[in-house]
Amino acid sequence: MSKCGTCTACCEVFEIKELSKPVNTLCSNCTGEGCGIHGKHPDECKQFECEFIRGGWKNELLRPDKSGVIISWDAINKRFQAIQFKDKIKQAILDQINFIRQQGVEIVEVNSKNLA
Length: 116
Ligand code: SF4
Ligand code: SF4
What we know:
alpha+beta, binds iron/sulfur cluster
């Protein structure tokens, strides 16, 4: 099973309404290696799992802090969304995006700079 390890990408990239935390701003509760209020963190945080975690991807290069892209499942629209948050991204994540597309699953790019 994949683990977040020292990744804190979702704690920076997403808005957390309960904390009035805007997008692309590191949460003030983030220690740099994890959540400083773990256990008391908002439901929004508890409910989020990126696809690296949800899918149990074995390739560590697909972990968002390493790949530069957060891929997550949009259950309402039944598709993935990919958010590129670093200028330089790993080829491994582009390969994964292409793999998902080859399975016939839609993947929508958000804030894309140079995703394939
Ligand atoms: S982006 Fe994914 S791997 Fe990184 S901290 Fe969030 S859930 Fe964990
Ligand atoms: S409260 Fe914790 S889990 Fe939620 S965004 Fe902040 S650091 Fe991340």
